[in-house]
Design brief:
4-stranded mixed beta sheet; 2 domains; Rossmann fold; binds S-adenosylmethionine; alpha/beta
């Protein structure tokens, strides 16, 4: 069942409205995880291009509501790219970092999403990455590393001498995948 209105008893809610309006109707400390890729103020079909300060002010209002509705120990993943004006770029994650940290969140990773598609630039290198900024509300947060481990460069490698000779020299479940994806 998919509901159009938030209710704590619903499993899936698909609300087609402004996210700010939606969030304002949500009680404090409701969500465990918030994942979003908001508009980048580029004038795409789903947004109106605004003066940068105005855009950042609107984002700040949404972020404030996200932090209010996040549970203690919850996570926010904010996927964002660059705002571009006359060939000059503004990294939006850098512009928004003070908003998240000013609301008390702690950044755990700035994950680089690298891709090969997109516009080709002639007076600068073509933009080929965006970032996913992962913040937590407090230090007692949920993070399960084991399910996302990847194979080691040399799987099954063991110490060949010393007191640990014969033991695995790396985690047999795989290695931490790192922050570029
Ligand atoms: C950068 S796109 C994200 C695209 C999406 N992550 C994907 O991969 O298809 C931004 C999305 O935010 C939506 N959006 C823009 N302003 C919004 C608002 N005020 N409330 C809710 N959604 C909004 C747009 O319709 C668009 O789907």
């Amino acid at each position: 069942m998919i509901s159009e209105r938030f209710d704590p008893g619903e499993r899936i809610v698909l609300a087609q409205e402004s996210c700010l309006k939606f969030l304002e109707g949500i009680p404090d400390s409701t969500f465990q995880l918030i994942v979003t890729s908001p508009p980048y103020n580029l004038g795409k079909e789903y947004e109106k291009r605004l003066k940068l300060e105005h855009y950042l002010g609107e984002e700040k209002a949404v972020i404030r509501e996200c932090v209010r509705t996040l549970k203690p120990g919850g996570n926010i993943c904010w996927q964002i790219g660059n705002y571009v004006e006359d060939g000059s770029i503004v990294p939006l994650d850098a512009a928004l970092f003070p908003v998240f940290s000013g609301l008390g969140l702690k950044m755990r990773n700035r994950i680089i999403w690298h891709f090969e598609h997109g516009l080709h630039c002639s007076r600068r290198f073509s933009g080929r990455y965006e970032t996913i900024c992962w913040f937590t509300k407090g230090d007692d947060y949920v993070f399960h590393l084991d399910p996302v481990r990847v194979p080691q460069k040399y799987p099954g490698k063991r110490y060949f001498k010393g007191p640990k000779a014969g033991q695995h020299s790396c985690n047999p479940l795989g290695k931490n995948p790192g922050d570029p994806r």
